[in-house]
């Protein structure tokens, strides 16, 4: 069973910054593409950013230039640095891992609220 431990959500004013973290086991970390997805009320879950185990990244157009996804191999942790936050970034953010052994796995979600 894949365990993902998320942290870092909260309430911030527009223009502010937050950093999300997602920690997992070493085995999962080294074999997985990892990513952040978000779901706002009444909307479908959408991809925010993904990073492969080789460090290749992809971002949603809406966050390019503002968000940065990264991996820390020493800590088996993935991060999402979110800058210049906007009210439309308000959502529950989910950590995701994807690999050939366990398929797709999701974290419990962390709320990000951006006030105007």
Helix and strand arrangement:
Blueprint: E1 5-7, E2 10-13, E3 18-23, H1 26-31, E4 33-39, E5 46-51, E6 57-59, E7 67-72, E8 77-82, E9 91-99, E10 103-106, E11 110-115
Describe this structure in words.
The chain has 116 residues and is mainly beta. The chain contains one helix and eleven strands, in the order βββαββββββββ. The chain has one helix at residues 26-31; strands spanning 5-7, 10-13, 18-23, 33-39, 46-51, 57-59, 67-72, 77-82, 91-99, 103-106, 110-115. A hairpin with a 4-residue loop joins strand 7 and strand 8 (77-82). The longest helix is centred in the N-terminal third of the chain and has 6 residues, at 26-31. The chain starts with a strand and ends with a strand. The relative contact order is 0.31.
Give the amount of beta strand, in percent: over 45%
CA radius of gyration: 13 Å
Q: Number of DSSP helices?
A: 1
* Helical residues, percent: under 10%
Overall 3D shape: globular
- What sequence of helices (H) and strands (E) makes up the elements? EEEHEEEEEEEE
The largest β sheet comes out as:
7 strands, mixed
Q: How many runs of DSSP E, i.e. beta strands?
A: 11
Q: What structural class do you assign from the helix and strand content? A: mainly beta
Uncertain stretches: none
Q: Termini separation (Å)?
A: 39 Å
Mean pLDDT across residues: 96
């Amino acid at each position: 069973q894949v365990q993902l431990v998320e942290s870092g959500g909260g309430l911030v004013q527009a223009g502010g910054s937050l950093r999300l973290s997602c920690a997992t086991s070493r085995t999962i970390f080294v074999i997985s593409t990892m990513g952040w997805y978000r779901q706002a009320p009444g909307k479908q879950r959408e991809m925010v950013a993904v990073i492969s185990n080789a460090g290749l990244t992809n971002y949603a157009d809406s966050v390019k230039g503002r968000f940065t996804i990264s991996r820390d191999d020493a800590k088996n942790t993935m991060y999402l640095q979110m800058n210049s936050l906007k009210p439309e970034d308000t959502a529950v953010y989910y950590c995701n891992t994807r690999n050939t052994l366990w398929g797709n796995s999701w974290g419990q979600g962390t709320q990000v609220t951006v006030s105007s």
